[in-house]
Amino acid sequence: MALKVAIVGRPNVGKSTLFNRLAGKKLAIVDDQPGVTRDRRFGTGRLGDLDLELIDTAGFEDVTDESLEARMRAQTELAVDEADVALFVVDAREGVTPGDEIFAEVLRRKNKPVVLAANKSESKASEAGVLEAFGLGFGEPIPISAEHGEGMADLYAAVAAHA
Length: 163
Ligand code: GDP
Ligand code: MG
Prior knowledge:
This protein is of the alpha/beta class and 163 residues long.
């Protein structure tokens, strides 16, 4: 049976890049429904010997009104509720931001395993950000580069622990 993985985190951390790297077959974008379901993307993929069902959550980059935070929370909750594992992505180059804290708070309230990925870790400049991500309280961050395909074996090990 496939492991359902929800890729969550604030805009621009590299969620969709990771989704695209992991997803072999991309399923339909659910864009005909109102509200929070609209912005999720589903796909199947493989990581090592794991079959995955992936949920990519959109970042609402172009929503600027005050409902943004509420929508991001709701969408994250929906995706995580459907998933076996939440894959929480942060940007190691930027370190932990207030935006990341919002997602961390949502995830702490959910009774789901969280794998923390510190993305954009392909350069030495990201090391401080990886360390900072420890402070989010989800255990050891896995340094990855979704763009360059680095850290996938460690990501596999962390995700497989919850399969
Ligand atoms: P999302 O909003 O979280 O889905 O983020 P995207 O996947 O759209 O990526 C946001 C930006 O970060 C894009 O310009 C990506 O090319 C870039 N990006 C994603 N992964 C990496 C990475 O591993 N390293 C670097 N340097 N950039 C990345
Ligand atoms: Mg995206």
